[in-house]
Specification:
There is one protein chain. By secondary structure, the protein is α+β, with helices and mostly antiparallel strands. It folds into two domains: 86 residues, no CATH class; 180 residues, Sandwich (Jelly Rolls). It is 22% helix and 37% strand. The protein is built from three helices and 15 strands. Strands 1, 3, 4, 6, 11, 12, 13 and 15 form an eight-stranded antiparallel sheet that branches. A seven-stranded antiparallel sheet has the order 2-5-14-7-8-9-10, with no helix packed on it. Strand 7 and strand 8 form a beta hairpin. Helix 1 packs antiparallel against helix 2. It is globular and about 45 Å long.
């Protein structure tokens, strides 16, 4: 703190650097550095000749320069990500959608799911020992999932940010054939990897951070399914032609799992405008 105070006073004394000194105060306040509020009220010490003004001012200029480079780099990274997302949805129209929450049949929805409307976050969790979402004779694995509404015409895209919690071993997203089950499944593994089924790698180090998942499905003859992670295409697959489809997201537990948990936010549904 003393270094900042001394540098501040010297910068103020140097002709033409008062603006830099003011910037230093604002930057310290923004980043919670103690003492920033007192810089203008402290008594200015006398600047004696043995103390070199120029080196300290050079330090301040260098310090601010590094800060600006790092800050602008972050801005550029965010802008690039935003541009990538925007270009991916060019030619698509966002549409409203309905959904239902599937959860262990013997529990209430709130026992395995909640929704924070303030932050638009859907929270899913399930235990491998939980019961299926439907009563016997259903013998499927336990899940807590959002089942979006069915579509049969027009290329559709699911779009949402996902946060996978540690320990999760579950299917976190599905492209579903309404009559014959899942076509593609996005699997989260305990080691942080995410794969399409158990094969193609979607990403690594996916646990404990937000990232974006997009899944598209074109129901026409020869239509394709595409999977994107953080707006990068990671896989293209054949769809099954004209029929009913839907998307799912949440946690569908895998054999050998314990507690699986994930959050989704800003879920959107898109449809290609030329269809």
């Amino acid at each position: 703190m003393k270094l900042f105070q001394r540098a501040f006073f010297l910068a103020e004394a140097e002709n033409g650097t008062r603006a830099l000194a003011r910037f230093t105060v604002r930057w310290m306040k923004a980043h919670g550095i103690p003492g920033s509020n007192s810089l203008w009220t402290l008594k200015r010490p006398e600047v004696r000749a043995p103390i070199a003004v120029q080196p300290v001012c050079a330090f301040l200029h260098g310090f601010v320069g590094i800060f600006l480079v790092l800050n602008f780099s972050s801005v550029r990274a965010v802008a690039a990500e935003t541009n990538a997302a925007a270009s991916l949805t060019d030619g698509w129209k966002q549409i409203s959608f309905k959904y239902e929450i599937q959860h262990p049949y013997d529990l209430k929805t709130a026992d395995r799911y909640d929704f924070d409307a303030t932050n638009n976050i859907h929270h899913f969790w399930v235990y491998f020992t939980d019961k299926p979402h439907a009563s016997p004779p259903n013998k499927t694995t336990a899940r807590t999932e959002m089942r979006l509404e069915t579509f049969s015409q027009g290329e559709h895209m699911f779009d949402g940010d996902v946060y996978i919690c540690p320990g999760t071993f579950a299917c976190i997203g599905q492209v579903f054939d309404a009559a014959h089950g899942p076509i593609q499944m996005i699997i989260a593994h305990p080691d942080g990897k995410v794969t399409v089924r158990d094969h193609e790698l979607v990403m690594t180090n996916a646990i404990g951070r937000w990232w974006n998942l997009k899944m598209t499905n074109d129901p026409k003859d020869g239509g394709k399914i595409k999977i994107y992670a953080d707006n990068v295409l990671v896989g293209t697959y054949n769809s099954r032609g004209p029929r009913d489809y839907y998307f799912k997201c949440g946690v569908y537990s895998r054999k050998g799992s314990d507690r699986s948990e994930a959050r989704y936010r800003n879920i959107k549904m898109w449809v290609k405008q030329d269809q």
